[in-house]
Amino acid sequence: MERLKKRFKMLKKLIIKAYNPWVIFHVPAVIMLLMLCWDYTLCKKLTSYSGYFALAFFVTTLLLNPLKSFKLKWVWVIKLNRYRRQLGVASFSYVLIHLTCFIIKRVMGGFLQGLVYFLHPAIIPAFFIAFPIMLVMAVTSNNYSVKRLSFAKWKRLHKTVYMAELAVMVHVVLMGSLRLMLFSFVPLCFLQFMRRKNRV
Ligand code: HEM
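^ thats the input. predicted complex w/ protoporphyrin IX containing FE below
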């Protein structure tokens, strides 16, 4: 009986862990990684899918601040705001998969020729601006970094995300996804503008 109780407790813990936002937001990432391990030629398709996921998480994370400032009583805004850190880190995880797929795809055509693609006008803002900024954000998205840097410095550092936003916008447009850019960044920029206007 004691053993059964212990097992039941373990199962309960496992279920609670499975509902953890870290787990939920990373389920598609794990599936993509497994697919890539199964057949690396899938990298061609996965570059696009991981890009969409990275963008969706990135824009959702950035949308939450302006929506919160309008004091909306929408339950999902209140709930998602609790998980902004997880959403932001998840966006970086998808960018990592996106970059890995890109590297595999290009290395398949020859290592040196592949390096030239990093100097493509659409890749420069993504790889040299958005990626390093998102990396720093992901690494410092924890209480330890807030304490270590002090809240003011940490906040200043995290404001560089707006530079990443601009870089991603340029990347998506130059990749030929103008419609995607309009659907995601136009509402985001409008809400960010309204938030700034309300503050002044
Ligand atoms: C880290 C450096 C990056 C590299 C090397 C890179 C590379 C690429 C490539 C090669 C494509 C074309 C995919 C295809 O048509 O098959 C692409 C598209 C895309 N990327 Fe990136 N990317 C980077 C960063 C990012 C970031 C930071 C985001 C968003 C947060 C992003 C979102 C997208 C989106 C949404 C598309 C359009 C997908 C499509 O329409 O097929 N990328 N990227």
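The pocket of protoporphyrin IX containing FE is lined by residues 47-48, 51-52, 54-55, 58, 91, 95, 98-99, 102, 123, 126-127, 130-131, 168, 171-172, 175, 177, 180 (CB under 6 Å).
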